[in-house]
Amino acid sequence: MQLPAPIRTYFAAQAPQDAEALAAAFAPDAVVRDEHRTYRGPEEILAWWQAAKAQYRHRAEPLDLTQAADKTAVRARVSGDFPGSPATLTFTFGLAGGRITDLEIR
Fold first, then answer.
1. Does the predicted TM-score (pTM) go above 0.85?
2. d(CA 95, CA 103)
3. SS3 sequence, the chain?
């Protein structure tokens, strides 16, 4: 499975050392939706990512990828310190200009 570069960066990034690389993978006006909350722009997205990594110490292993219209959906096995671990979640990415423009996690 060949992941686009910004999605590969998203899944490979480890907190805290890869924070700058992760933030650079997102467009300036990017939006992330996770757990019924919305995060806008690289600063909010980076704060969300760092807090989630600290709280859940999770890791996501991509399982498969599908493309539909302008979205790339990646099913991933997520394991960490949370009830129900491991869980299979879908990460739906919008991409433009080599960056992530939007991400929804379900």
1. yes
2. 9
3. CCCCHHHHHHHHCCCCCCHHHHHHHEEEEEEEEECCEEEEHHHHHHHHHHHHHHHHCCEEEEEEEEEECCEEEEEEEEECCCCCCCEEEEEEEEEECCEEEEEEEC
Residue 24 or residue 16, greater confidence:
24
7 CA to centre of own chain = 7
Per-residue model confidence as pLDDT tens digits over 63-74: 999 998 899 999
Sign of torsion, CA 45 18 22 67?
A: negative
At 13, is the pLDDT very low, low, confident or very high (cuts 50, 70, 90)? very high
